[in-house]
Design a protein that fits this description.
The protein has about 100 residues and is an alpha+beta fold. It has two helices and three strands; from the N terminus they run H-E-E-H-E. Strand 2, helix 2 and strand 3 form a beta-alpha-beta unit.
């Protein structure tokens, strides 16, 4: 999917309002949905370290744990999301 991010001064491009779907946050959210593919996102947590670094923990649906060897793809999801958005993310399944 081709997603466009409009910055804060979008009026220079001749637009009156910036649609919510074109904000940085919504585009990154949509990319996150696309990266995890067939599984669903169960929850998200943002962990802020002592040094100020942010890391997003993405909890995936536990029903999809044994389906299509998703367990082995968790590191791949993190690498792809980092490459696309330059944000750190850890993908995991919630502990029951």
């Amino acid at each position: 999917a081709n997603r466009t991010i409009l910055d804060k001064n979008f009026r220079r491009k001749g637009l009156q309002v910036r649609p919510r779907s074109r904000t940085l946050t919504s585009v990154h959210e949509a990319m996150l949905e696309d990266v995890v593919g067939p599984t669903e996102i169960f929850g998200k947590r943002t962990r802020i370290g002592v040094d100020g670094s942010k890391m997003m923990k993405v909890l995936l649906d536990p029903k999809d744990k044994d389906k299509e060897n998703v367990e082995t793809k968790l590191a791949t999801y993190a690498a792809v999301y980092k490459k696309l958005t330059n944000k750190e993310a850890v993908f995991q399944f919630p502990e029951v």
